[in-house]
Design goal:
This protein is mostly helical and 444 residues long. It folds into three domains: 5-71, no CATH class; 76-136; 142-437, no CATH class. 63% of the residues lie in helices and 2% in strands. It has helices spanning 5-26, 54-63, 73-136, 140-148, 152-174, 194-209, 242-247, 265-277, 288-296, 300-329, 338-347, 353-360, 366-374, 381-385, 391-437, and strands at residues 44-45, 50-51, 192-193, 285-286. The protein has a two-stranded antiparallel sheet with strand order 1-2. A hairpin with a 4-residue loop joins strand 1 and strand 2. The protein is rod-shaped, with a radius of gyration of 60 Å. The relative contact order is 0.08.
Length: 444
């Protein structure tokens, strides 16, 4: 590469000027004080025999004028040397630090907010857990209501079935059905109706219900034609003893199963007691010829007597209905609650197995279960101790007591209905008597 003398001189001047500027920039501030010699390099330029004006040279360099016209010293120096290599990395570090400070601060605030939200959520869950544990923990008292009332609906249904069976027996006896003693004329001179019924009941009395010590021991005389043949005193006088037969027992073996060979002792006792209480004397003794005569020679008088006969049976059925309802409520029910009733009976102080069995029975009746639900349960001190419970459980117990109260109100309502029917029947009897006084009085 060849350079002209002027080019070499120009290049040298630029180099010297650059060295002079750099030297000026690197001279400490003190060196600019008074006494500085500007006649030596780099301030004095022997090439042009002149002094370099530093400000002028710097102005030409920065603005690209004079001998620096067309040069990119500004970009080279400021952008490459100063900005790219010095300022930019420093600014980047500063920006990173500022960004880290801002982000870290935001992250700290966010972390506090997240922690606060999480704590609130955990507190809410813990409160709900505590409330659930408090409101839904097992309560012994609620279990008592639930277990004692087991099979109560089954026992209630069996009560209705037994009641219907007892009422069917009451009517069939008075109507002298074929399968009833009153409808079978057995023995010399016996006719269906009153005589056949009395004979069968007397035979049953001697075999089942008689007491040899009654009537001054007359029935104990072996020589007597009518002597007591009862082999046991289990059913002694149960055909007339309302207390031992129906009132005192908590459970009665009243099932009346279909095609049963024999009746249970309780079934015999209740039926015999009902026979002595209702329609002890049947309306009439009739033979087959009497009914045939009615059919062949029916007249107003005979028809009236037959209808009166059925009217009396209807009135007696109203009276016997209450008896059948009371007996049916004590009929054995479902076995599901037996274990829990026994546990409650022991809690009441009963320790003897026979006493517990007499109170509870093998299949507790509807009456027994209702007695425990409405009476026995509240005789235990544990009931009142168990009231010291959570508010939710106390409300549940209150609801259970309300439900039991509704069942009891229903039983009372049905009892009042029976009483109403009895009163209306009694009123009808008095009305019938007045009607009979004026029977046929209007005929000429």
């Amino acid at each position: 590469m060849c350079f002209s003398p002027s080019g070499i001189a120009n290049l040298l001047r630029r180099k010297l000027a650059l060295v002079a500027i750099v030297s000026v920039l690197l001279v400490p501030a003190r060196s600019w004080a008074a006494g500085t010699n500007y006649n030596i390099l780099p301030y004095y330029n022997p090439a042009c025999n002149c002094c370099i004006l530093v400000g002028q040279i710097m102005h030409e360099i920065f603005w690209g004028t004079g001998i620096w016209t067309g040069d990119d010293f500004q970009n080279d120096f400021y952008m490459d040397e100063m900005y790219t290599k010095k300022f930019l990395p420093t600014f980047q570090q500063m920006a990173d630090q500022m960004r880290d400070a801002v982000i870290t601060n935001a992250m700290m605030v966010g972390a506090f907010l997240d922690g606060q939200a999480e704590n609130f959520a955990l507190a809410s869950v813990q409160k709900l857990n505590a409330k659930a544990i408090k409101d839904y923990q097992v309560s012994d008292q609620i279990c008592r209501f639930g277990t004692v009332s087991r099979s109560l609906a089954l026992s209630d249904d069996k009560t209705r079935t037994v009641k219907l069976a007892l009422m069917e027996q009451v009517q069939n006896r008075q109507l002298m059905k074929n399968n009833m003693a009153s409808g079978v004329a057995a023995g010399k001179g016996a006719t269906i109706g009153r005589s056949a019924d009395k004979k069968a009941r007397w035979d049953q009395f001697k075999k089942k219900f008689c007491d040899k010590n009654d009537i001054g021991g007359t029935l104990s005389n072996p020589a007597s034609p009518e002597k007591c043949a009862a082999a046991s005193d289990v059913q002694q006088n149960r055909d007339i003893d309302m207390t031992r037969t129906l009132d005192a027992p908590a459970n009665l073996e009243l099932d009346f199963p279909t095609n049963a060979a024999n009746l249970s002792n309780d079934e015999e006792n209740v039926i015999a007691l009902g026979n002595n209480l209702y329609a002890h004397n049947l309306a009439m003794n009739l033979s087959a010829s009497d009914f045939n005569a009615m059919a062949l020679k029916a007249n107003d008088g005979q028809t009236r007597k037959l209808l009166d006969f059925r009217s009396v049976i209807a009135k007696r059925s109203v009276a016997a209905n209450s008896f059948a309802a009371i007996a049916a409520m004590k009929a054995q029910g479902g076995p599901s609650s037996k274990t829990y009733l026994e546990a409650l009976a022991k809690e009441l102080g009963l320790a003897n197995v026979k006493e517990i069995d007499a109170l509870v029975g093998n299949n507790p009746s509807y009456n027994t279960q209702m007695e425990f639900l409405t009476k026995r349960m509240y005789q235990s001190p544990n009931f009142y101790a168990n009231l010291y419970d959570t508010p939710a459980n106390v409300e549940r117990e209150e609801t259970a007591l309300g439900a039991i109260g509704l069942m009891q109100d229903r039983d009372i309502f049905e009892s009042l209905q029976r009483s109403e029917m009895l009163l209306s029947t009694l009123l009808e009897i008095y009305v019938t008597r007045e009607q009979d006084r004026y029977f046929n009085k209007g005929q000429k």
